[in-house]
Structure formats: structure tokens, C-alpha cells
Specification:
The complex is a heterodimer of chains A (133) and B (235). By secondary structure, chain A is mostly beta strands. Chain A has one domain. Chain A contains one helix and seven strands, in the order E-E-E-E-E-H-E-E. In chain A, the strands form two sheets. Chain A has a four-stranded antiparallel beta sheet, covered by helices on one side. In chain A, strands 2-1-6 form a three-stranded mixed beta sheet. Chain A starts with 5 loop residues before the first strand and ends with a strand. Chain B has a domain of 102 residues. In chain B, 9% of the residues lie in helices and 31% in strands. Chain B is built from three helices and 14 strands. In chain B, the strands form four sheets. Chain B has a four-stranded mixed beta sheet with strand order 8-1-12-13, covered by helices on one side. Chain B is elongated. Classes of the chains: A mainly beta (133), B mainly beta (235). At the A-B interface, strand 3, strand 5 and helix 1 of A face strand 1, strand 3, strand 7 and strand 8 of B. Strand 3 of chain A pairs antiparallel with strand 8 of chain B, so a sheet runs across the interface.
Chain lengths: 133, 235
């Protein structure tokens, strides 16, 4: 048995559209980068095997509590770090004798029994956008 | 299982410039505060801009959307310049201004959200987390570390996008800090061998730099250059 951890993402669609969901082996994770004050993108080796265009999962989280009239507020929060930290914990959480199926975030909105496979995952994430070229 | 190496540029951070003459084009912010100026043009990264008036004394400057020390009254736009008292601080909306290569250009008081600057005014901007401000790489992506000079060390990572060009992180540090950085990175890579965690290698948060092992190399600045650059990284 390969002790690989598989990372599952799903957006808030109905599991019926291209790239509503995706799963990547943790070993294909290449890195994560902040894209804005509210988004972090996690990059993976491409599933098409070309190796030249990374697949990305853009996770959205709350903005820092800032506004244009209070310069102190940008120092208040680190949501991107929390998301990265939780991802790291989940991605490396594989153990023997478990399924190693890890839900990073599942926002599926289908009805009960047909919807999200887990209400767990990273609670700070409010949106998931999957890019697979 | 492996660790994940976390880096963050000096963000959030604030930096100030003092107007040498009455112009709407501010002097460039210092690269030692905010990093390389070339390409530093993401105004969405600026959360707030304040202006401390030197002149004042009844001379009109601000027009609209300014507040006194974070009190936020509702102010209707007017093209009439308002008198600014010397030494007072006013906040203007970054979205109303332009920003390119570390240089702010403010609209004058005749424009919504504008403020006419005068000699000696101090403009302070507050940067928050933004595009490519922070990143995290699996340890397995680390390709090596090289000394670029006695005060500059470059970490090479396998490209996130999969191109042949490495992603790089460049540290500016005290003279002969290379060895310290190598030891810090080694510690970060090999910590928690049975676990796998995020390891904060360098964090310039809040202007208070923290690194693993209490910054033995005295790192003062970090530059991050993913091979794709700002346009190429977004998918």
C-alpha cells in the first residue's frame, strides 16, 4: 500500500460541471502563493502529464480588517497563513491504516446525502476555484 | 511527509516619504522598506494612505473623503479646497490614486478623493498582503542556496509553474550571513521528521522580522521572484 495522501477540493457548484471538483496526490504539490489579500493559490503538477503548466486551486478567505481610513488595521490578521498552515497539516497528515483521503475543502451545495462529502476541511476557506489546463 | 517552508516579504508594513516640493508625484519609497521598486505597482496592496500636513495654516489642500484621525464622517464631494491645519493627519483612499514602481501620484483637491500636497507634507502608505507577498514550498522543491554577495543569498526552488526557470527568494542580510541561512534552512527542512509541518523560515510581518532560530543572519529584506511573475502566476 502506498502511503500517499490524496487532497480533495470541491467548489460550491453541484458536482455537475467541469472542474467542480479535483483531487491531487499530496506529492504533486509544488507550492502556494498569495494572489491577493483574500486569495491563496495552491499549485500542483499538471494532471495531463505535460509538466509545463501547473494546475491551480485558488482558495478564497476573508480579507484583513482594513479600510482606507485606518492604517493600523492591515496588521490585524493573517488568514492566508492560517489557510497555508492548515493545508500543511492536512497534506502531511497521512497515517498507516487510514484511507488518507483528505478533504481540504468541500463547498458542494447539493442537498443532504448528495452534497458535500465532508463539512470539515479548512474552515476559513469561502470559495474554491480549480484550474486544470 | 515533509515540511513546508513559509516565507513572507516585509508585509504588512508602512513607509513614509517627505515632499521636497509642492508636487503630486511623491518621491519613491525606499526599497529597503518595501523591497524592489521596479514592478512594485500593485496599488491593491496598499490598504491606506495618510498625509501629515506640514504647511496648513489655512492653505487649502484636501477636498473629499478625508477624515481626521480615523473618525469617519460622511462628507460630500466638493471641489472647494479645505483648510488643513499644520501637523494634522488625513487619510485618503488608495483606490483614488495611482501607484507605479514605488511612486505614488495623488490626485489634487479638485478630484474626488484628492489632496493637494505641499512641500514638507509626509505621505505614509500601509501595505498589506497581496500578490506574491507570501509563499510556501514543500521541502522537496528546494534546489539549492547560493551566495550572490556577502550580503545577499538566493534560495532556488523548482518552479511552481513547471518551467525551466527557478523560483527564487533573495535575502538581504548582514555581511557573511550565508552560512547562517544555510543552517536555518537545513533546520527548517529537517525539523519534525515524523510529522511534516509548515515552518516559518522568514516572516517580515508588521515590520517585525521573525525567522527560524531568531534570525542569526540578520536578514532585513526578502525578494520573491516566481518565474512567472505577477502575470504568469495567476491561472
Amino acid at each position: 500500500m502506498r502511503e500517499e495522501n490524496y487532497l480533495y477540493f470541491a467548489n460550491d457548484g453541484g458536482s455537475d460541471t467541469d472542474k467542480d471538483m479535483a483531487m491531487f496526490p499530496a506529492s504533486t504539490f509544488r507550492g502556494a502563493v498569495t494572489m491577493s489579500s483574500t486569495t491563496v493559490e495552491f499549485f500542483f503538477a499538471p494532471q495531463d502529464g505535460t509538466g509545463t503548466t501547473a494546475n491551480g486551486v485558488l482558495l478564497t478567505h476573508a480579507d484583513i480588517a482594513s479600510n482606507a481610513t485606518d492604517g493600523t488595521s492591515p496588521y490585524a490578521d493573517d488568514k492566508h497563513y492560517v489557510v497555508m498552515e492548515k493545508f500543511a497539516n492536512l497534506a502531511s497528515g497521512n497515517r498507516k491504516n487510514t484511507t488518507n483521503f483528505t478533504v481540504i475543502k468541500d463547498l458542494n451545495t447539493l442537498v443532504s446525502n448528495e452534497g458535500a462529502i465532508s463539512s470539515g476541511g479548512i474552515s476559513e476557506v469561502t470559495a474554491v476555484a480549480i484550474t486544470i489546463d | 511527509m515533509e515540511n513546508y517552508l513559509y516565507f513572507r516579504k516585509n508585509r504588512p508594513i508602512s513607509a513614509s516619504v517627505t515632499l521636497g516640493s509642492a508636487t503630486q508625484t511623491c518621491p519613491a519609497f525606499s526599497a529597503s522598506d518595501i523591497g524592489a521598486l521596479a514592478g512594485n505597482d500593485n496599488e491593491n496592496e496598499i490598504a491606506a494612505i495618510s498625509i501629515t500636513s506640514l504647511d496648513g495654516g489655512g492653505t487649502g489642500h484636501a477636498s473629499v473623503l478625508f477624515t481626521m484621525d480615523a473618525i469617519v464622517p460622511t462628507v460630500d464631494y466638493s471641489t472647494t479646497a479645505l483648510a488643513i491645519a499644520t501637523g494634522t493627519t488625513h487619510w485618503i483612499n488608495p483606490a483614488d490614486q495611482s501607484y507605479e514602481d514605488g511612486v505614488l501620484v495623488l490626485d489634487g483637491h479638485g478630484t474626488s478623493g484628492g489632496y493637494t500636497l505641499d512641500t514638507g507634507d509626509i505621505v505614509t502608505a500601509y501595505w498589506k498582503t497581496g500578490l506574491e507577498t507570501a509563499c510556501m514550498y514543500p521541502v522537496s522543491a528546494l534546489k539549492g542556496i547560493v551566495a550572490a554577495s556577502d550580503i545577499s543569498t538566493v534560495l532556488h526552488f523548482a518552479s511552481i509553474l513547471g518551467d525551466a526557470t527557478d523560483d527564487t527568494i533573495t535575502f538581504t542580510h548582514a555581511s557573511l550571513g550565508f552560512e547562517h541561512i544555510c543552517k536555518v534552512v537545513n533546520d527548517a527542512c529537517n525539523a519534525y521528521p515524523r510529522d511534516g509541518r509548515i515552518i516559518n523560515v522568514y516572516d517580515g510581518h508588521d515590520g517585525v522580522i521573525s525567522t527560524l532560530n531568531n534570525n542569526p543572519a540578520t536578514i532585513t529584506l526578502m525578494e520573491y521572484a516566481p518565474e512567472g511573475g505577477a502575470a504568469g502566476m495567476a491561472t
